[in-house]
Amino acid sequence: MPSPSPTVPNDHIMGVYNRAPLAFERGEGVRLFSTDGDVYLDCVAGIAVDALGHAHPKLVAALKTQGEKLWHVSNIFRIPEQEALATRLCAATFADVVFFTNSGTEAIECALKAARKYHAVNGAPERIEIIGFEGSFHGRSYAAVNASGNAAYLDGFGPRLPGYTQIAFGDSEALKAAIGPTTAAVIVEPVQGEGGARSLTEAQLQELREACTEAGALLIYDEIQCGMGRTGRLFAHEWADGAAPDIMCVAKALGGGFPVGACLATAEAAKGMVVGAHGSTYGGNPLAMAVGIAAFDEIAKDETLAHVREVAGYLNQQLSGLKDRFPDVVLDIRGKGLLIGLKLATPNREFMALARDEKLLIAGGGDNCVRLLPPLVLSLDEAREAVEKLERACASARRSLAA
After folding, report:
1. Which terminus of the chain has a smaller tally of CB atoms within 10 A, N or C?
2. 99, 249, 254 from 103: Cα distances, Å
3. Does residue 389 form part of some domain?
4. DSSP secondary structure string, 275-288?
5. Domain with 290 in it: what CATH number?
6. Are residues 118 and 175 in the same domain?
7. Residue 39 neighbours by CB distance under 10 Å
8. 159 is in which domain, residue-wise?
9. Does residue 1 have a pLDDT over 60?
10. Cα separation of 271 and 287, whole Å?
11. Phi-psi group of 102: left, alpha or beta (phi > 0 → left; psi -120 to 50 → alpha; rest → beta)
């Protein structure tokens, strides 16, 4: 049977993705090698997943070693590897307890359930309201899309769930007006990904924390994309003093490419999550935990985070210069650390194709942005190469706009 073509859609795959006409056979560091022999600089990284690049030797070794021992057992038994990663996460954060999942969406589900359950066991079952922000993205499950409120992900799937509202991103006054006696929690990405790489300021994060504390509501951070070293701190909210959440969701880079998610919480916030309140078949299995431990240990190193800050500083400077040279193409530079957004005058999907012509992979985003989400190990030379490729893409976009 002939091999499938990367340029021809396969009728046996559900058509929910608008795929680029590319397929890859292997990766090495920040490079991806396509099935037709081309080499690409990968500034998508599986959408902020492959934080240590492709085929990182420590992750490969962890996978091989654990794969020859034990892949999966039920959560009805203790899983030592799970306990080891939970201990690392709690030692490095505000959290006391962790629930492991297979994905970020599942971590969000756990967080939303934990928040409502918290108030129920405290004698306030009426506190079910979840306040989110416009432009947010929290996953594709039913509760997650209701928390985001994006009509594109909601329409056609029946009635919307009760108890979910959205306010303008970063609008402190709107938050104070919305939060009240029926509010269970506020959920927010400290740096939005899909929504256009918008970042909350340190002051805004502190105001969020204060507002939730005063109202008796829980604060949930979605750090699935912006966490795990992406901004130059282990977690994005750590740039703001005194802004720790009650619950936090992480995934993507936590497994370095292997499906791992986690819901972190204080003991108080998780008080309702007792035996039988929640569960997962695959979440926290030994294979996932072995890779997660290896990824966490590498990402959490001081030298890794310092490297992110150095490369991010260079890219921010260079991209600001790019914006100055192509003000008719690049309208704004956004984001934080290595979660970078370029708001464009030209349609973002067209620009992504122009970047692919230069053998550069970038991601799309809301508000007509493209995102650079490179592996955290991107070198300064590779960052310089990315800027050069973007400059050529901008020149092509300028010609298209002038035509």
Report:
1. N
2. 12, 10, 10
3. yes
4. TTS---SSTT-HHH
5. 3.40.640.10
6. yes
7. 11
8. 70-299
9. no
10. 28
11. alpha
Spatial contact of 101 and 263, defined as CB atoms under 8 Å apart: yes
Number of CB atoms found within 10 A of residue 60's CB: 13
Query: What is the DSSP code (8-state) at residue 29?
Result: B
Q: pLDDT at residue 3 above 80?
A: no
Per-residue pLDDT tens digits for 239-280: 999 999 999 999 999 999 999 999 999 999 999 999 999 999
Residues marked active site are found at 137, 222, 252
CATH code, 44: 3.90.1150.10
Is the backbone of residue 55 left (phi > 0), alpha (psi -120 to 50) or beta? left
CB 190, CB 236: distance < 8 Å: yes
What's the rounded Cα separation, in Å, for the pair 280 and 314? 42
Q: How far apart are CA 71 and CA 259, in angstroms?
A: 13
Same-domain pairing of 284 and 149: yes
Total tally of structural domains belonging to the chain: 2
> Does 294 share its domain with 307?
no
Q: Is residue 60 part of a domain?
A: no
Q: Against a cut of 0.70, is the pTM above it? A: yes
Residues 163 and 101 in one domain: yes
Predicted confidence (pLDDT) per residue in 330-356, tens digit: 999 999 999 999 999 999 999 999 999
